[in-house]
Amino acid sequence: MDLPCEEALLGFVGKRNTGNASGWRLGLRHPQLTASGTVSLGMTPMLKPHLLSHLEEFETRMPLRSMALLTDLDGTISPIAPHPQRAAVLPGCRTALHQLSRLLPLVACVSGRPAMAAAGMVDVPAMVYVGNHGLEHLAEGCLVTDQRALVLAPDLAAVASSVQPDLQDGETLEMKGVSLTLHFRTAPNPLRARNRLLSLLNQAIGERALRVREGRMVIEVLPEVPVDKGTATQGLLARSSPGGAVYLGDDRTDVSAFEAVHRWGREQRKPALCVAVASSEAPEALLSSADYVVAGPLEVCSFLNWTVRQMMGPGGGVVG
Ligand SMILES: [Mg+2]
Question: Which CATH class for the 149-223 domain?
């Protein structure tokens, strides 16, 4: 598999197993630069089932009508865009989520964006929105923000003021209320930009109660509060008590949610399945802890619409 150098060097690759259309062979092994300016990656023997090729199996494992559906936003139901403000949810995902929010006990979006911004982008009012990696919760028009994070907002603003003047071409700073994100996807040399930005942040944060977390071509600064997508997911499942749970995500911040879903499933003795959205930037921890893999947001869209069809009768009524 050939990939653009920077993409491959920054991440992990999932490759459709051409010898067996039902699986994805996943791995990371010494990238090799080719004459064409691309990077070839060797593959490890790990194999993950391709969700769209295992839908019948999925349906035997998961009670569709009583399941909770939780999904990440960027890179999962919205293709990654060069600039975050240009990203948009796939219309087919929105339509399916709108229908599922009327059919399932819980349909939630768990995002690193502010909850209000995520809600505006997804535009399905009946969904629950978790924003800022669990620091915000928006449901039925009511926004709740973690008070421990609000207290640290001045520290976050100070870090932003310190870093902003040193940003270079292709680097942008996004203030998100109780967190901030540095984007470097469009920097001329993303690897160099990442290392420089991490150094700048280390100096700016100093002893402040803030922490740094990396994602797909982003570095995030969050309050030092024991909250993440995992704790948020755990809370959502505890409150809604569904018959099963499915979580879809594409990045390292979704790994804690995968762990929470699996833990909930073990404790409650209920089906709990996690779907990794593969890309050249997907971290190994995400792919290795997933139950199924899809190739990108378009396949997430196919899965969501399949779920709707399974629950609706031929005349559009609910089956069951
Ligand atoms: Mg994402």
Answer: alpha beta
